[in-house]
């Protein structure tokens, strides 16, 4: 049986939606994935089995499923629960503070036999309003209003920090901050690096060197882990930024090409048209007309 569940965490680093077990497949069998998952109970109880331990997720409770952990979901009776799901690449939730363990260290810590609380009630996270925050996150993803990506990241930052405080108070964060394989650690840091430097010209050879890997090994591993080539991902990130400039600003293409790491305006137009089938100006015009028609 194949347990690995593919998910495009590169093109869709954050997904959030409501799940009604009356309408979709349920129960959900054992699987694992590279992204983190949050399940928030809305109606009835959802039983989440994570690394062979059962958790009863009741309405207004939240469970955090770390990346690369085997989990499944079912109900103890004939009721079909409803819950909210958030899937996200936690390494792309940017947290500051040099005294804090890196996210990659924390999540690898879950592989060790440490009793870490991952089921939370509202009183466990007093400064994070579960219902309002997670409902708002779904709404922001669906509407994609100005600044939605920053808004979403702020919600996830607050959630992660509240969980980290809980684990810190229990003395668990230091257990996660162990030494790890440098190459692997650097490899998993590459995605945040690309995101943060997307306004620059990024060479895959340089990324491979950062990981202490040959070009061929790096390229092969990237595609194996993320399902697409590193070149495709870099292009996707840059074009995603171009889209936001076109939709939410009045900058000209020369400025946008500089801000998004394209060599020049012609390069931007060529890559954009190859991806979307239309020029950036045509894209902006179409979406402005859609906005006026609301």
Task: Give the overall shape, derived from the CA principal axes.
Answer: globular
Number of helices: 12
Q: Round the mean pLDDT to the nearest integer and report it.
A: 83
Q: Specify the structural class.
A: alpha+beta
Number of strands: 9
Determine the strand fraction and express it as a percent band. 15-25%
Q: Going across the major beta sheet, what is the strand order?
A: 1-8-3-6-9
What profile does the largest beta sheet have? 5 strands, antiparallel
Helix fraction bin: 40-55%
Distance between the termini: 47 Å
Number of domains: 2
**CATH homologous superfamily assignment of the largest domain:** Regulatory protein AraC
Q: What's the short story on this structure?
A:
The protein has 294 residues and is of the alpha+beta class. It contains 12 helices and 9 strands.
Could you walk me through the main structural features you see in this protein, from its secondary elements to its overall organization?
- With 294 residues, the protein is an alpha+beta fold.
- The protein folds into 2 domains: 14-176, Jelly Rolls; 182-292, Arc Repressor Mutant, subunit A (Orthogonal Bundle), CATH 1.10.10.
- The chain has helices at residues 103-108, 130-143, 148-169, 173-176, 182-188, 190-196, 204-210, 215-226, 230-248, 253-259, 265-276, 280-292, and strands spanning 14-20, 28-31, 36-43, 46-50, 53-57, 61-65, 71-74, 82-88, 119-121.
- Residues 179-185 have low confidence and may be disordered.
- It is globular.
- The longest helix is centred in the middle third of the chain and has 22 residues, at 148-169.
- The chain starts with 13 loop residues before the first strand and ends with a helix.
- Helices cover 44% and strands 16% of the residues.
- It has a 5-stranded antiparallel β-sheet with strand order 1-8-3-6-9, with helices on one face.
- Strand 4 and strand 5 form a beta hairpin.
């Amino acid at each position: 049986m194949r347990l690995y569940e593919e998910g495009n965490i590169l093109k869709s680093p954050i997904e959030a939606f409501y799940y009604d077990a009356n309408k979709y497949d349920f129960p959900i069998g054992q699987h694992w994935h590279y992204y983190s998952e949050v399940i928030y109970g809305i109606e009835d109880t959802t039983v989440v089995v994570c690394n062979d331990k059962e958790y009863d997720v009741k309405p207004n409770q939240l469970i955090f499923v770390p990346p690369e952990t085997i989990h499944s979901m079912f109900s103890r009776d004939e009721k079909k629960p409803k819950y909210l799901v958030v899937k996200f690449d936690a390494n792309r939730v940017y947290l500051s503070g040099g005294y804090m363990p890196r996210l990659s260290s924390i999540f690898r810590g879950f592989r060790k036999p440490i009793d870490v609380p991952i089921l939370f009630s509202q009183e466990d996270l007093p400064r994070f309003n579960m219902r309002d925050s997670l409902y708002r996150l779904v709404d922001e993803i669906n509407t994609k209003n100005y600044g939605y990506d920053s808004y979403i990241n702020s919600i996830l930052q607050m959630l992660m920090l509240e969980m980290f405080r809980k684990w810190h108070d229990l003395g668990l964060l230091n257990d996660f901050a162990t030494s790890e394989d440098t190459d692997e650690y650097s490899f998993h840091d590459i995605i945040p690096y690309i995101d943060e430097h997307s306004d620059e010209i990024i060479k895959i050879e340089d990324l491979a060197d950062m990981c202490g890997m040959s070009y061929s090994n790096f390229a092969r591993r990237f595609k194996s882990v993320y399902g697409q080539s590193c070149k495709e991902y870099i292009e996707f990130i840059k074009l995603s930024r171009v889209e936001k400039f076109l939709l939410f600003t009045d900058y000209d293409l020369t400025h946008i090409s500089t801000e998004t790491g394209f060599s020049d305006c012609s390069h931007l137009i060529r890559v954009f048209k190859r991806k979307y089938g239309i020029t950036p100006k045509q894209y902006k015009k179409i979406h402005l007309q859609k906005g006026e028609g609301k």
